[in-house]
Amino acid sequence: MPTITETKLQWILQTLYDTTRVPAFYLKRGIDRHPTLSPELVNQLLSTPVHLKIQLMDYNIQMDKMILMPVYTLEGQGLLVLWPNAQSYVEHVPFAWDQQLNSTTFIEPNDLHQLLSVAIMAHYLLHHEILDRNQVLEDNKHVLNINNHAEGVLELSLLEQRERRLFHKSYLSEKKVFDQVRLGNKHKMLLYLKQHMELNGVYGTLSKQNSLRSKKNLIIAAITLGTRAAIDGGLYSESALTLSDTYIQHIETLSRIDSIHPILHKILGDFTERVAKVHRAHNSKDILLCQEYIFNHLYDDLSLSVLSAHLQISPPYLSRKFKEETGEALRIFIQRQRIEEAKNLIVFSDYRLSEIHTLLNFHDQSYFIKVFRKHTGFTPKEYRNRFVVKPS
């Protein structure tokens, strides 16, 4: 079911462009008029069969490439188009672009790997789902025509193996940071941010010709993800978007950035603190203390009797009050937090799967697998196979 409005979609597309300088268009089915593209081009794109989440398309006799992605909004359905070389074909350059399209382009029109990175980022921003780059390439091999080029396949395979080792570790390390923004836990967010920054190769260069521009792009990308996490955490969208715009405008005025870490420390810390304030405004002191105790004792006994004794209130009162204030049963909340921690252990630790359920106080492995699948859609083994890339 679609959960995004066209207004939010347009904001995502503009932010995506601000971050990557890849022109992004939304074409709504049933409407052949577009402020930037010609009616003929709009009709041509909308009539193109799109069967993949990310579909590569050659344009102008394979001189350049674009990405087509189906989009479903609350107002209807349409097509998202990512087109690095759009400025060569547009009839009217949007005001938001006119100062930028003639400047240094962040990716070359035919840089397939960077274009796919932007598409995977766009899909994640729209659907909060990670796509496997190798699978996207495999799905589009009829366009790439790589089967007839054995040497190209080998080079592509080696490149993808190198990228995947960093991509999955980086993605899940980054996810830990923004999960804590969503939860309003500044202490853990800053801890995970430090770990994330220390990962080798985490931050790719979005602008090869301009170090300052690259740093700005990375900060803006983090602001975008922080904004979404804060909104998911309960911060009013208007407040989050205004804060996002303010920070992005400030970043664009900087003439020098020595290190992005203190900037991200301040910005993401601000988002996290605001989410925490919203939580404090909606939850009583007892429930906030209960949640904090759970976050800090995931490896310990978190039975209702232990929690109520810590808070010095009766077990029935705690159970009822937690459900009333959060809308979620205390037992389910604890399960969710432990499964999130299990995901981190699966990816970032050397613990065997058989050890993790014991560490997190699940009474047996079969129950752990059942709960893990309920919350993630995967068994622990499937999750490890999907997200942990072993060195070849």
From TrEMBL:
UniProt entry tagged with the keyword Metal-binding: no
UniProt keyword terms in alphabetical order? DNA-binding, Transcription, Transcription regulation
Q: Which residues form the HTH araC/xylS-type domain?
A: 288-386
In terms of Gene3D superfamilies, this protein maps to: Homeodomain-like
InterPro entries reported for this sequence:
Homeodomain-like_sf, HTH_AraC
Q: Which GO terms describe its molecular function?
A: DNA-binding transcription factor activity; sequence-specific DNA binding
What is this protein's record name? AraC-type DNA-binding protein
